[in-house]
């Protein structure tokens, strides 16, 4: 870039400022209690696509003012699910722009009395506009994150109601993640084409559950819980902070109080208390059972339940909300990362929310299968690459002691601009607001493979990292970086360095002797430059299940095995240096991508197939992850880890042979 170009860019960067982000409110996970009811709106909805060349037609023609079936032929569409792979029609799979959903529902008469009614979406990708009975109630931009609105005055009680959702999947340079829309000549006309650089299919639709729920007029709107341990982890502290919503709250705040109970797994109350005037307080738990990661302790993922009772000063019970809490500490410095005072070595995966037919739709069978596979393979962590995963999956990780690096939807971040910065910060704000109470969340990842070479990346990532730290100082900030350390301008703003690198695949494909040294040297370079803990966020090789080639050749199961083994060697050299804190395979399972000449039916770097069956490498990785668990955390080994081959190596048989030889 010439001097003039540089000055222009510099000037543009200067005008990017650190603006305030409107804080998220409410959004507690919908739970029933003595004072709350929850109803699901999941099921089959009606669905239509709009004309790609005329995406705003439905809004102009007010499609929301009556049943969609009056304007177009509707087809059934399951919620939650991506709409792309449900039909056999490629114009639906590849549709760019707006689609519409509607359905009818009843609201019980009993809900009309003295309470509030809320409508909550777990996530809609990418932008959502929602009407009830023809009136707009909420809009939200950004996939993978929840949003809600109070609909008390929009629903009809004891009568039929209609909900209409318009969903827009278009990604442009100021969305998170970014994409481009262009017009390309096609047979008989012009096509609207969506492109993006990230390597997963841009699935869209109502991806997670839709709920109606009630709260009292004055209600528990937000809960923030943190924890601490002392006396060699024998005493725990739970700190809670509540915000009350509702008309009465402002004038009456000082007269309200929260009474709190903490119950253990057997439902025995182990601590209780009453909040101070600011609706916050602390609970002390003697003989505490800390939250430990899987394989680091005999009882991993121990959760207590905190019960919050909102009372008026004259003792009237207004609202009750319960949530699970884990008691643990996280600490980090230049050389290590500790949980409950013990150094942690992370062994896990980058994953995707992705499966056949349902795309990115929430699916409890898949969640459960994935958790079973993670435990089978001995992983203790995963990164929510490359966007926030469902709230239900986070709850599952809490219960099972799986540590989560929680990533926002910023992937391949490029062409830095003010709108992008504002939205990137907002994505972190919404993510932290949603996930701050999960003990499983051990780190925030502010981006995947951002283009951190340009100097604008410096201020952009400084703003995002500092903003994240200001919102939550209890967890370190990371990002998965792929730009070489010599040109990267973001890593210096992070607490923990995570790098993605495909030795033996994108660099030097087929060369198994060009892996170990490269990995070791790169990790050392990152550490030397920043003096911070380092981990590898991605390594791997595309592998077609059932393709066997000896000697190992790329795309075969043998090659994936040997490539992993070369990486393991590097990691073991690095593990001797305390600052190397983890290894993450790319990817847990095969997943769908945009159509490309480098992808055969999608990305095949899974250790499991898309249908969640193991490739050969899964068995190798399982041996490593459990061996690490044994060495580092003294875990038990599963009985079927090493299959019987011969008794030739047992002491007894050796003894027999020696005797026979005499
Ligand atoms: C990466 C990306 C990931 C891709 C992967 C690959 O670096 O972070 O999203 O899927 O490489 O397989 O190319």
Automatic annotation (TrEMBL):
<feature type="domain" description="Glycoside hydrolase family 2 immunoglobulin-like beta-sandwich">
    <location>
        <begin position="218"/>
        <end position="328"/>
    </location>
</feature>
<comment type="subunit">
    <text>Homotetramer.</text>
</comment>
<dbReference type="Pfam" id="PF00703">
    <property type="entry name" value="Glyco_hydro_2"/>
</dbReference>
<dbReference type="InterPro" id="IPR036156">
    <property type="entry name" value="Beta-gal/glucu_dom_sf"/>
</dbReference>
<feature type="signal peptide">
    <location>
        <begin position="1"/>
        <end position="26"/>
    </location>
</feature>
<dbReference type="GO" id="GO:0004566">
    <property type="term" value="F:beta-glucuronidase activity"/>
</dbReference>
<comment type="function">
    <text>Plays an important role in the degradation of dermatan and keratan sulfates.</text>
</comment>
<feature type="domain" description="Glycosyl hydrolases family 2 sugar binding">
    <location>
        <begin position="38"/>
        <end position="216"/>
    </location>
</feature>
<comment type="similarity">
    <text>Belongs to the glycosyl hydrolase 2 family.</text>
</comment>
<dbReference type="InterPro" id="IPR013783">
    <property type="entry name" value="Ig-like_fold"/>
</dbReference>
<dbReference type="Pfam" id="PF02836">
    <property type="entry name" value="Glyco_hydro_2_C"/>
</dbReference>
<dbReference type="GO" id="GO:0030246">
    <property type="term" value="F:carbohydrate binding"/>
</dbReference>
<dbReference type="GO" id="GO:0005975">
    <property type="term" value="P:carbohydrate metabolic process"/>
</dbReference>
<keyword id="KW-0325">Glycoprotein</keyword>
<dbReference type="InterPro" id="IPR006102">
    <property type="entry name" value="Ig-like_GH2"/>
</dbReference>
<keyword id="KW-0378">Hydrolase</keyword>
<dbReference type="InterPro" id="IPR023230">
    <property type="entry name" value="Glyco_hydro_2_CS"/>
</dbReference>
<protein>
    <recommendedName>
        <fullName>Beta-glucuronidase</fullName>
        <ecNumber>3.2.1.31</ecNumber>
    </recommendedName>
</protein>
<dbReference type="InterPro" id="IPR008979">
    <property type="entry name" value="Galactose-bd-like_sf"/>
</dbReference>
<feature type="domain" description="Glycoside hydrolase family 2 catalytic">
    <location>
        <begin position="334"/>
        <end position="626"/>
    </location>
</feature>
<keyword id="KW-0732">Signal</keyword>
<dbReference type="Pfam" id="PF02837">
    <property type="entry name" value="Glyco_hydro_2_N"/>
</dbReference>
<dbReference type="InterPro" id="IPR006104">
    <property type="entry name" value="Glyco_hydro_2_N"/>
</dbReference>
<dbReference type="GO" id="GO:0019391">
    <property type="term" value="P:glucuronoside catabolic process"/>
</dbReference>
<keyword id="KW-0458">Lysosome</keyword>
<dbReference type="InterPro" id="IPR006103">
    <property type="entry name" value="Glyco_hydro_2_cat"/>
</dbReference>
<keyword id="KW-0326">Glycosidase</keyword>
<dbReference type="InterPro" id="IPR006101">
    <property type="entry name" value="Glyco_hydro_2"/>
</dbReference>
<dbReference type="InterPro" id="IPR023232">
    <property type="entry name" value="Glyco_hydro_2_AS"/>
</dbReference>
<dbReference type="GO" id="GO:0005615">
    <property type="term" value="C:extracellular space"/>
</dbReference>
<dbReference type="InterPro" id="IPR017853">
    <property type="entry name" value="GH"/>
</dbReference>
<dbReference type="GO" id="GO:0005764">
    <property type="term" value="C:lysosome"/>
</dbReference>
